Amino acid sequence: MTKFQIILSNIIITITIVAAFFYLTQKSSFQNYEDMKELSSVDTIYVKNKENRTDAICKTRNTIITETVKNVSPAVVGISVKEVRQYQYNSPFHNNPFWQKFFGYQIYNKEISGLGSGAIISDDGYILTNDHVAGTADEITVTMSNGKHYKARRVGTDLTSDVCLLKIEATDLPFIPFGNSDEILIGEWVVALGNPFGLFDVSDKPTVTVGVISASGMNLSPVDHRYYIDMIQTDASINQGNSGGPLVNSLGELIGMNTLIWTAQGSSGNVGVGFAIPSNKLNKVISELKEKGFFKRDFWTGLRIHSIDEGIANYYKLPDTRGVIITDVIAKSPAFNAKLEPGDIIKKIGEIDIDNYETLKGVLQNYKTGETIQIGILRNNINLVKNMKLEKRGR
Q1: pLDDT band at 18 (very low <50, low <70, confident <90, very high)
Q2: Residue pLDDT, tens place only, 60-112
Q3: If you count DSSP H runs as helices and E runs as strands, how many of each does the chain have, helices first?
Q4: Can you name the CATH fold of 74-167?
């Protein structure tokens, strides 16, 4: 092969290689362009699907709890009260009879403001709250979730059960229906709504907290002559200002009224232990307040009792110290007519277990004059039930 032929062959091969390289490069670029177009289309579909997914997620976030909150919230109100209280001036001369003879006791009036919560329980404006919120207030203002304000009048109040019934002049109001507190389940979801720390006034909306029923039938010690028996315990957060607000189940039924919290030493905040008055007790008190303005408890029993200590438990061969022992029965009294006897040990009133004297006293506050109660007793190691009518003395 001549030198010229070799050079020509190399040129042809080079041109072929360059042409092939150029062709492949252009094809790759074209394919990348097509791929980009396809990717762009896929990405658009992905975004659309993402939006659909977001909509679906939003819809699935609407649980029975969120629906309950949506339905119940308009019937929750904030309550602000004003009360004029009398105070005595602190002075070193007040305890001096000489100065008291000339000046007496120096008294001054002071206006006290307070906040609480409430629940509308009828479309004609009846509102439920605590006695310690509005029971002694001189002026009561109710704030609705739509921003409206109403002056409320006190229909009736009961210090012993810590229940107060208010009324505003309005109609066609949203309200919360009552549920049956005897049917609550330990561990079921509950929602507490109210006006903690006055936050209702910031947005005209109740604060919502969610938890479960932690326990039922809780008998607490009396506070300021108020008796808290057979209470519902919840871990739904309850704080200062929540008093009087509703505790509702997942169906939106009022099963309790938030009333007390258990606080850690040196703290006034929530620690996950709150208590509500059960709805069945509320219903009973409310019916009396509507009719009479008060709950009538002018009955007597004729019983003299004593809490059971270790000595009494050992003497009667009792397994524990729960209950109270009857030490005397007054003749012709309700207890006498019920055939109760000294030495009987009271273990139950109705369905509530009696732990001690304070529990018995508190349980009796659940009843009104004229009612007949069932008393479960232990007599000579035999369980008996006696019926006692709570009558007014002198009948």
Answers
A1: low
A2: 788 899 999 999 999 999 999 998 876 666 655 556 665 566 555 666 677 78
A3: 9, 21
A4: Thrombin, subunit H (2.40.10)
Identify the CA nearest to 320 among candidates 378, 363, 385, 373: 378
Could you state, in order of their start, the residue ranges of all structural domains in the chain?
74-167, 181-292, 299-392
Same fold, 181-292 and 299-392: no
Catalytic residue among 117, 145, 161, 243: 243
- Which is the catalytic residue, given 80, 117, 131, 132? 132
Determine the topology of domain 181-292 in CATH: Thrombin, subunit H (2.40.10)
Which entry of 131, 162, 230, 235 is annotated as an active-site residue? 162
Mean pLDDT, rounded, for 316-334: 94
245 vs 31, residue with greater confidence = 245
CATH numeric code, 299-392: 2.30.42.10
For the question of residue 243 being annotated catalytic, the response is yes
Residue 117 CA: distances (Å) to CA of 100, 114, 236, 338: 43, 11, 16, 42
Do you know the residue count of the chain?
395
Count the alpha carbons within 13 Å of 124 in the hemisphere toward its beta carbon: 0
pLDDT for the residue 25 = 52
Q: Considering the entire predicted model, what is its pTM?
A: 0.79
Mapping DSSP to helix (H, G, I), strand (E, B) and coil, where does residue 97 land? helix
Long-range contacts of 216-220 (CB under 8 A, 24+ apart): 216/181, 216/184, 216/186, 216/278, 217/352, 217/353, 218/275, 219/352, 219/355, 219/359, 219/362, 219/363, 220/260, 220/275
**Active site annotation includes 306:** no
pLDDT at 47 over 50: no
Distance from chain centroid for Cα 67? 18
